[in-house]
Amino acid sequence: MSNRRLRFVLLSCWAALLGLGLLLFCLPLGGWLRWGMVALLLAVLLLALWWRLGRGELDGERLAWLPVGVDPATPVILWRLAASADTAPVAVLHDGQALWLYAADGDQLQALAEDITHWRGRPPEAALLLVAPALCQQLGALHGEVAAWRYGLQLLRQRYGKRISHWLGLYVPGQQLEAASPAWRGVLYHPDQPAQPAAALLERAMTRLDLAGRAAVADVAGEMRTQLVLRWAQTQLLPALCDLSRGLPAMRLHGVLCGELPGQMTSSVLGQWSQQQATLQLKNIAHAGRWPLPAALVPLLVPLLVQPQRLVAGWRSLLHAIQLAALALVIALACSYLGNRQLLQRVAADLASWQQLPAQAGSAERLAVLAQLRADRALLSGYARDGVPLRLGWGLYRGQQLLQPLERAIASWHPPAPPAPPVVIALDSLSLFDSGSARLKPDAGRALVGALLAISAHPDKRVLIAGHSDNTGNSAANQRLSEARAGAVRDWFVAMSKLPSSHFGIQGYGDSRPLVPNDSPQNKARNRRVEITLLPDEPAH
């Protein structure tokens, strides 16, 4: 797994872990909604990992041309040869210092830059155009290749900005090389510095050459050929580098390099131009089929892009992880603030409802508010005893300040006194009625007057008159007799008071509710009775 994919996996898992923490401990979500969001988050994580790792396998197939074991921190240089050559350059060359990728046209230039960016997370470090004027036979074709290269560089600049430095290399015609790689000389600017106009660099190269690797010029003829190539570039190549007719900006470079290449032709654009200028005449020397590259200049081309880039990528991933953690912390603090505010507002509203409850409020309403206060107290006491949950924590919890007001409000509740038992007046049936009769005796009023005084003293109380008998005779007859006696007593009360008959209720129980067992004449006498009950007042609503 590449470092880039590893960073993606670690960041994705870190983001998922933070999301799980928020869902499980911070966000105020219900049970099914919370677990549904957790399942969705895990599904998104697995989908992202599957997509990224699957894309990595596709990238592996796409980058099958890469040499085995190439370090992603190796500098990558895209280069193009503008020359008429029978021998094609090596497409991929890894010399141990840099990875040289040959771009045959503009489309391949874009594709290579995109592949390298997918592979290691950053674009190539440099783009190098090499020109061999001693081997090119048509100046128009050379200008067309330069224009195509400039167009490709413009597309790279639009996508990657100025992170890819641009270089120009000129092959100087020479004899057979003794060394494996020629000495390259040039005018160089650090890649971190702004690129310079091509015209200014060529002019400076004409007056002073910076020797790469501090190598020295061995012969005067070689110096003359170098000056010849630079003068040719100023007059013949520079117009193609600065042509604005195609809508492209003038080419800006970080350096111009000159290196010796064995092989030259008198019919080349350089040979024809030198004949017109009556300067150094070229000879026909066969090209050796090898295109030396300025490998010795790699430390100067990309001095800060080997190890620092890896460090920058690591620090960028760490910065992303810190940003994700900061975002999660902000969300957790916001949830804690909102949750604490809602808790305080709810408890304060319950306390206000209790304090504003009118004195005449019914017991049911008072008990409902009291139950809510007790629930609030239980909740806050649990937080004080077991700890505040994370969704209310982070130093924002203020619920403890409401515990004492809740205790005082609950302690102020005094349950109402139980209602007084109903007043029951029991009268002996023998003092009111003859045996088996429902007609009041003439002197029954002396027994009923006491009950009448009690009823008159409580005109707001309803009166229930119930007749009872012993178990002598038929139960149905006893029930009818007891109800008739209750009705006779009610009629007497209505006649003797100003209360309507609806104020009284009658009921005949017969022998169904004896006070004592009907096992003796004395007990049977006690069970034959008329009970007058003053019903308690109904509660106000």
From TrEMBL:
<dbReference type="InterPro" id="IPR050330">
    <property type="entry name" value="Bact_OuterMem_StrucFunc"/>
</dbReference>
<feature type="domain" description="OmpA-like">
    <location>
        <begin position="420"/>
        <end position="538"/>
    </location>
</feature>
<keyword id="KW-0472">Membrane</keyword>
<keyword id="KW-1133">Transmembrane helix</keyword>
<protein>
    <submittedName>
        <fullName>OmpA family protein</fullName>
    </submittedName>
</protein>
<dbReference type="Pfam" id="PF00691">
    <property type="entry name" value="OmpA"/>
</dbReference>
<dbReference type="InterPro" id="IPR006664">
    <property type="entry name" value="OMP_bac"/>
</dbReference>
<keyword id="KW-0812">Transmembrane</keyword>
<feature type="transmembrane region" description="Helical">
    <location>
        <begin position="318"/>
        <end position="338"/>
    </location>
</feature>
<dbReference type="InterPro" id="IPR036737">
    <property type="entry name" value="OmpA-like_sf"/>
</dbReference>
<feature type="transmembrane region" description="Helical">
    <location>
        <begin position="33"/>
        <end position="53"/>
    </location>
</feature>
<dbReference type="InterPro" id="IPR006665">
    <property type="entry name" value="OmpA-like"/>
</dbReference>
